[in-house]
Amino acid sequence: MDCEANTFFGVMNAFRGLNVFSLLPLSRQEYMLMFLVFRHRKTNPEGCTVSTLTRLMRVPQPAVSRTLRGLENNGYIRREVCREDRRNTYVTLTAAGETEVQRANQLLEEFHRGIQKRFTQEESDQLMELLRRLYMAASEELDEMKGEKQANG
Q1: What percentage of the chain has pLDDT greater than the value 90?
Q2: What number of CA atoms fall less than 13 Å from residue 28's CA on the CB side?
Q3: Rounded Cα–Cα distance for residues 153 and 147 (Å)
Q4: To which H or E segment does residue 78 belong?
Q5: Which SS3 state, helix, strand or coil, does residue 81 take?
Q6: What is the mean pLDDT of the chain?
Q7: Rounded Cα distance, 125 and 84, in Å
Q8: How far apart are CA 102 and CA 112, in angstroms?
Q9: CA–CA distance, 55 with 137 (Å, rounded to integer)
Q10: Per-residue CA distances from 51 to 68, 98, 133 (Å)
Q11: What angle do CA 39, 121, 134 make, to 5 degrees?
């Protein structure tokens, strides 16, 4: 591996090692599920379906169900089967769940402010744009390489 690629993967691995979610009393997956339900409550007051959560999280449905079961046992969410279509289950936050998501959001915002104060606004804007471009480039390259791998069998 050349020096630039080695540096790139070293930095990516270092970021992976930063466990920002260790600041929260929730795991990353618990927080993300609760955040998605919290965010969707304005457009979907009946709740967010398990299938929507699975699609947005990009993880297998059994993993989502397992995490939801734990959140339900802890009193953070409620699950209710849809009366019109029993194949759908809606997830809503309890009052305790809303409080926990808001608390977690505050901690993450505080963390972000702490980082951002080390950059000028221009640097911060440029960094966000570069990170978006990096994500898109990496996503596209991964899709291309997976497609080539499947084509070559």
Answers
A1: 70
A2: 8
A3: 10
A4: strand 77-81
A5: strand
A6: 91
A7: 46
A8: 15
A9: 22
A10: 12, 21, 29
A11: 65
- Model pLDDT, residue 41: 86
Strand partners, 93: 77
d(CA 97, CA 34): 7
The answer to whether residues 29 and 59 touch, using CB atoms and an 8 Å cutoff, is yes
**Amino acid, res. 47:** G
Q: Say what the pTM is.
A: 0.80
CA angle 32, 33, 38 (to 5 degrees): 95
The Cα 89–Cα 71 span in angstroms is 15
Alpha helices for the chain (secondary structure H): 3-17, 28-40, 50-57, 61-73, 95-116, 121-152
Burial class (CB in 10 A: 0-12, 13-18, 19+), 34: buried
Whether residue 56 contacts residue 74, with contact meaning beta carbons closer than 8 Å, is answered with: no
DSSP 59: S
Angle subtended by helix axes 61-73 and 28-40, to nearest 10: 90
